[in-house]
Structures are given as C-alpha cells and as structure tokens.
Amino acid sequence: MKGLKILGTGRCLPDKLVTNDDMRAFVDTSDEWIRTRTGIQTRHFCAEGESTASLGVKAARLALERAGISPEDLGACVGCTVSSDTAAPTVASTIQRDLGLPKHIPYFDLNAGCSGFLYGLHVTRGLLLQSDKPYALLVGAETLSRVMNFQDRGTCVIFGDGAGAVVVKLEEAPYAYTLGAEGSDDVIYIGGYGSKEPYIHMEGQKTFRFAVEMVPWCIHELLGQSGLKLEDIDWFVLHQANKRIIDHVAKKLGMPGERFYQNIAHYGNTSAASIPIALDEMAEQGLLKRGQKLLCVGFGAGLTWGGALLEW
Length: 312
Ligand code: UT7
Hints:
5-stranded mixed sheet; 33% helix; alpha/beta; single chain; 4-stranded mixed sheet; 27% strand
C-alpha cells in the first residue's frame, strides 16, 4: 500500500495573543464560561499586514526546511482553507511565488471546512500517485478573525487564526482514509464573496452532536479498513474544536485521554489549520517516533468529515 510519510512540519501563529478576558471587549462573556465550555484560554488574531497566505507561507517554509528536500522534487502544493484572503491568487499559488517553488506542478486551494486538511491529504496522495515527483506540500491556513461577527458570542470566542504545513512523501506505509459530507447551511455557515452575511456562524449544540457522533464513526471506519485495533494507535490527532468533544470521544472509545493530543487551550479552533499545527507541535516536542501510527480526524463546516491513518 502506498501511504504518506510526513517528512517535515511547520506552523505559524500570528503574534497577537487574545485572551478570554480580551474577548470581553467585544461580547458579554467570561473567562470561566469559555474555559469550562470549550477548554480555550487564548487564541491568536492576525494584525494588519498579516494574511491567510502570509501565515501559510511561513508555515510552509519551515516544513520544507525541516523536511530537507529539494523543492525541485515537489509534485504538488495544496492549500486548505475556508478563509482565503482572495479567491485568486490562492494561498497555494502565493506560496509558490513567495518561496520561489518550481512552476510546473499543480498549486490550488481546497475548501472542505474544518476537514480540509484530511481532504487535502487524500487529494495529495492521489496527485503523487500520478506524479514522477515524490513529495508534496500541504498547508492548512486560516484567518477566521477576519470573518467573525464580534457580536455573535456563541461563535466568535471559539475561533482563532494560524497555519500549519507538512511535507509528505509517497512510500510503502499503512494508509486508510474516509471522507464525507452532508450538505447543510443551518449548522455552520461561513459567508463568502458577495454574501449578505460575510461571517462565520455556528449552531454550537448541533455541531457538538454532529462531532461526537461522526468522530468515533470515522475512527472505527479507519480501523475497520486497516485491520488495526484501537490499542494499535499511538496518537489520535483530532480537529481542535472543543476540549469537551475530544474528551467525550476518548471516553466513548474507552481510550486514555493522553493519547489524544490537545492544544485548543492556546489556539482555539483554527479550522483546516488545527491538525497540521498539532502535528508540528507534537514533532517539536519529540512526541512522534518513526513507525508510530496516527489517526487524524477532522469535522466541521459543510458539513464535512474526514479521517486518515498515517504512519509517522
Ligand atoms: O470547527 C467546527 C466544529 N465546531 C465545533 O465542534 C463546536 C461544537 N460546539 C461547541 O463547542 C459548543 O456548543 C459551544 C462551546 C459553541 C457552546 O457551548 P454550549 O454548551 O453548547 O452552549 P449553548 O450554545 O447551549 O449556550 C448556553 C448558554 C446560552 O445562554 P442561555 O440561553 O442558557 O441563557 C448562551 O446564550 O450560554 C450562552 N452563551 C454564552 N455565555 C457566555 C453562548 N456563548 C456564550 C459566551 N459567553 N461566549
């Protein structure tokens, strides 16, 4: 089976740190409410001069440096985002320009809500299967603060800005995937170009119920495909949407919470960037060892869901 090995990771969080108390300048909320309902303590917001693409470029540069590959060996570059600065240029093509990457390979963005990174992994694998180049660059980048309604307290306290990137290589390794969608605009809605309401709005409880049902489903689907058991998985890297969702899933599966990486306290929900940011932190902290098995699962706007089994 041709799977994907992650050779290098990178992340970029904007400098501007916003605490729960800072959010009280916009909405009637409290540190206590946000912490207990979500686990979030801080998030980062872009300042003037920063953009979805600029965060993506910085994360991508680090991932390429750490992978130690020659950019000439890249077969594709995919940006995953729901908050691109412009419809064109895309985040991916800005990365091409700013990092001087080779021109004659595909560069494009995909939007699959908070599941974007999982969709991106599988699309990237497909592209590499058709390419004579071994590597691809995959970047999740978001500036959700730019599409926030700062009067919608049930939504705006949850999200943050950031980018994460990985360089992957196609090689013999375990691999399984699941992707899906169920069209809906009354659970999570993000206004786009020309929209009357260019904001993100989330019906929290509906989203919560969707997540706690879908994530275990994805995990069992991946285990079923690969013939592995829960105990064979070293790390569960879930989309960081709410600490309570991750804790709930761990409990439902009867797995120790320590196997579920969490960083939502620091960054909030960074949509398609949350999983690659988590992977970069885990790599930096030395938590990931070669040969370990990872289950990554994303879920969110669309509604969409996606999961992948990877070997580190
Ligand atoms: O990335 C996409 C995936 N996203 C998710 O998975 C998010 C899933 N959902 C959630 O994380 C939670 O539903 C939230 C954290 C968004 C909300 O928590 P909740 O426990 O579902 O709260 P709720 O929406 O039921 O609201 C409970 C109360 C309401 O007040 P009343 O009507 O009971 O008086 C809200 O008005 O909390 C109030 N409330 C707030 N209070 C203080 C809502 N937002 C806030 C706030 N601060 N920021």
